[in-house]
Amino acid sequence: MRPPPIRKSLGQHFLTDPRILARIADAVALTPGETVVEIGPGRGSLTDALLARAARVVGVEIDRKLAELLREKYANEPRITIVEADVLDVNLGELAGGPYALAGNVPYYITTPILFQALRRPRASRSVFLVQREVGARMAAPPGADDYGALSVNLQAHAQVELLFRIPSGAFNPPPRVESAVVRVTPRAEPIVAADAEESFRIFVQAAFALRRKQMRRVVRTVADRSVAEAEAALAASGIDPDARPETLSAADFHALGAALSLWR
Ligand code: SAM
Fold first, then answer.
1. More exposed terminus of the chain, fewer Cβ within 10 Å: N or C?
2. Closest residue (by CA) to atom 23 of ligand 1?
3. Ligand 1 pocket check for 63: Cβ under 6 Å
4. Confidence tier at 90 by pLDDT (50, 70, 90)
């Protein structure tokens, strides 16, 4: 079967360079017994590199024709399962059926929803994403950096994020207009936020960053609907300067503040 026409609306930019594909697959640091879930296998180029390093690959591909192409390509490969679905509609852990790693040259039009989807439980033991370079920088940015934001805090509350290496746009067919980078996300052994507080934490952090550049005294009053005295007491209890701004607080600071405001324990 010939590859179907490229659908740019699905973020289709394919990689073919075997050295780049090997570098991405190596970054997943798979052990031979492991299962890896791949987001958007496309024509199967990264899939081949992952299969060479894992026991099983589960590929989630939305494009019906590409899913057909992949089923045909891997007809004699029992270690691969192709699931034709929107990655945002599936539970990745259930598809894996046990512990798993996650990898994907992800479609850029839904990168952030995919990153939040990857935080749903059961989570991957490691995830490697090929993303737009700016998104990679936001994911890994430390507090105070220009590109530090709600995405950075939410990921870093659960995981260690490493910006590994860049990939030039010329390596893709067709080349995207932006540069790309490979990022590895490794869950913390002890997450900063407990499972039952994750949703409240995400909402609180997003609301705080909507007031970027405002002082925390004002942010707390607005976001948590507290008086000046209550806001200042909560900030003091969590060791945060009331003059500080949301973009300088770490995930641990946000967690301590929410606990002082009794938003979670
Ligand atoms: N992995 C291939 C490679 O590296 O050459 C293809 C990467 S391409 C950037 C993104 C892939 O994700 C495409 O195959 C596209 O059809 C697929 N895709 C787009 N949206 C998707 C979605 N919502 N769920 C699952 N796959 C999706």
1. C
2. 86
3. yes
4. very high
> Does 208 score more than 90 pLDDT?
yes
- Residue 32 confidence class, pLDDT cut points 50, 70, 90: confident
> d(Cα 138, Cα 5) in Å, to the nearest integer?
32
Do 71 and 82 form a contact (C-beta atoms < 8 A)? Answer: yes
Q: Is the pLDDT assigned to residue 1 strictly greater than 90? A: no
**Rounded distance between C-alpha atoms, residue 53 and residue 182, angstroms:** 18
Q: CB atoms < 10 A from the CB of 130, how many? A: 26
CA distance 94 to 171: 33
Q: What is the distance in A from the centroid of ligand 1 to the CA of 30?
A: 21
| Residue spans of alpha helices (H) in 52-185 | 64-73, 92-96, 111-117, 133-140, 150-156
pTM greater than the 0.90 cutoff = yes
Q: How far is the CA of 32 from the centre of ligand 1 (A)?
A: 25
Between CA 241 and CA 244 the distance in angstroms is 5
Residue 127 near residue 66, CB atoms below 8 Å: no
Query: How far away, in angstroms, is 96 Cα from ligand 1 center?
Result: 18
CA torsion sign, 245 to 250 to 251 to 255?
A: negative
